[in-house]
Amino acid sequence: MAHLADFNTEKKFRATVKKTERLTPANTEEVREILLEVQPEFNVKVDQSFGVLVKSSGEFGNTFHHRLYSVADLPEKKNGNPLITMLVKRCSYVDDFSGELYDGVASNYLCDRRVGDEITLTGPHSLPFVVPADKTANLILVGMGTGIAPFRAFIKHIYKNVKDWKGKVRLFYGARSGLELLYLNDKDGDLTNYYDEATFEAFHAISPRPHMNDPIALDAAIEERAAEIVEMLNQTNTYIYVAGYEKVKGMLDKAFSNILGSKEKWETRKAELVAGKKWAEIIY
Fold first, then answer.
1. If DSSP codes are grouped into helix, strand and coil, which group holds residue 34?
2. Residues 6+ apart with CB under 8 A from 121
3. Fewer CB in 10 Å around end: N or C, the chain?
4. Cα angle vertex 179, ends 72, 24, to 5°?
5. Triad 179, 127, 245: Cα angle to 5°
6. Per residue in 164-199, pLDDT tens?
7. Cα–Cα distance measured from residue 202 to residue 154, given in angstroms and rounded to the nearest whole number
């Protein structure tokens, strides 16, 4: 996996906030969808990401804080300028040494932007999620929280641009509560438009007690589809793409080990996927 320091930040682009909307209710974690209009030279695709540079000050003087974001919708153009959509969750973290709570630099900066504000972008940068050339390939997509962003654009691209997809596309998405199931609810559920596709199905998992910080039962949701997943994993043209926070890796290892019957069988199959470039992940 590449580190942020590996990405080129020398080439910068100016973007203007055209729309910012909170997608989650007021009593939940804040996730915003932000629409940006970027200068014409910036052309980002659904299989790419882009960086946001935020000027911050600290004990060593002013520095630039760099964070990467996935494209959350199909890019469009207005008056020749690209329009790109991003998802941002307002984050905070506890310092390991002092125990103090700090606001995430980039996430809070972006969530505080208003229409008309300008921000600085870098990129485009590559993403590991590539649409297979084989239209009969199966895709198991696993997202947590804002990890839905790249898959939303990915799925729309397959059905609107690639077309005639013959393989199975299975999206597993986890959120703390039904109100936080971005793009799969009554308010902004545009992914539900694809439920009538013969090849696409989406499954969600939520915490059984969201106010108690119980874990999201993503592994249980995957295991419920065990028979179909075994069938897909027995085929050589199945890909697994994962996006979300670190804990999702443990959930997946547990679920796929149970589905295949043992930890050793899953480790062998995963190694085959990785070697064949059929496994890709973005973990944050």
1. strand
2. 12, 13, 14, 15, 36, 38, 42, 50, 51, 52, 53
3. N
4. 55
5. 40
6. 899 999 988 876 544 455 665 555 566 666 666 788
7. 14
Distances, alpha carbon 132 to alpha carbons 36, 135, 165, 228, 236, in Å = 28, 7, 10, 20, 13
| Residue percentage of the chain with pLDDT more than 70 | 79
Could you tell me whether strands 92-94 and 138-144 are parallel, antiparallel, or unpaired per DSSP bridges?
unpaired
Beta strands per DSSP E along the chain: 12-22, 31-38, 48-58, 61-70, 76-78, 81-89, 92-94, 101-103, 118-126, 138-144, 169-175, 200-206, 238-244, 279-283
Taken as a whole, the chain contains a residue count of 284
Considering the entire predicted model, what is its pTM? 0.81
Tokens of 193: 């438009």
Q: What is the pLDDT of residues 69-94, one digit of tens each?
A: 888 888 888 888 999 999 888 887 65
Check if 4-126 and 138-283 are the same fold: no
DSSP reduced 3-state for 35: strand
Backbone angles phi, psi at 148, to 5 degrees: -70, -25
Domain ranges of the chain: 4-126, 138-283
Are the beta carbons of 177 and 141 closer than 8 angstroms?
no
70 with 150: CB under 8 angstroms? yes
The separation between the first and the last C-alpha atoms of the chain, rounded to the nearest angstrom, is 11
CB 179 within 8 A of CB 186: no
What is the architecture, at CATH level 2, of domain 138-283?
3-Layer(aba) Sandwich (3.40)
- Take residue 185 and report the two structure tokens written for it: 């609810």
User: Amino acid identity, residue 42?
Assistant: F
**Residue written as token pair 């697994």:** 240
pLDDT digits (tens, 9 = 90+) for 169-178: 998 887 654 4
User: In what helix (H) or strand (E) does residue 109 lie, and over which residues does it extend?
Assistant: helix 105-111
